[in-house]
Design goal:
By secondary structure, the protein is mostly beta strands. The protein has one domain. It is built from no helices and six strands. It has a six-stranded antiparallel beta sheet with strand order 1-2-3-4-5-6, with no helix packed on it. The radius of gyration is 14 Å and the shape is flat.
């Protein structure tokens, strides 16, 4: 699995400010996806989708406050 890192100049960070930052994206082509965003203010947005269809999402403000910490188990057995 090869990931790509790209920079951006202005996006709204979880704290509400327009910030620059970088995005790291990985996709194995079989259902595993990773999308991690780091803003220059220190805020982070992390989203991982797993092979079984479940997703893990975390949004963290630059002061350490967790705004979202969600695990969804969307897989069918």
């Amino acid at each position: 699995m090869v990931g790509t890192s790209t920079g951006f100049s202005k996006e709204r960070a979880p704290c509400g400010k327009q910030m620059s930052g970088s995005r790291y994206h990985e996709d194995d082509g079989s259902g595993m996806l990773c999308d991690d965003v780091n803003y220059s203010c220190g805020c982070r947005s992390i989203s991982h989708q797993f092979h079984d269809g479940s997703c893990r999402t975390r949004i963290i403000r630059h002061d350490g406050r967790v705004l979202l910490n969600q695990l969804s188990a969307e897989h069918a057995e």
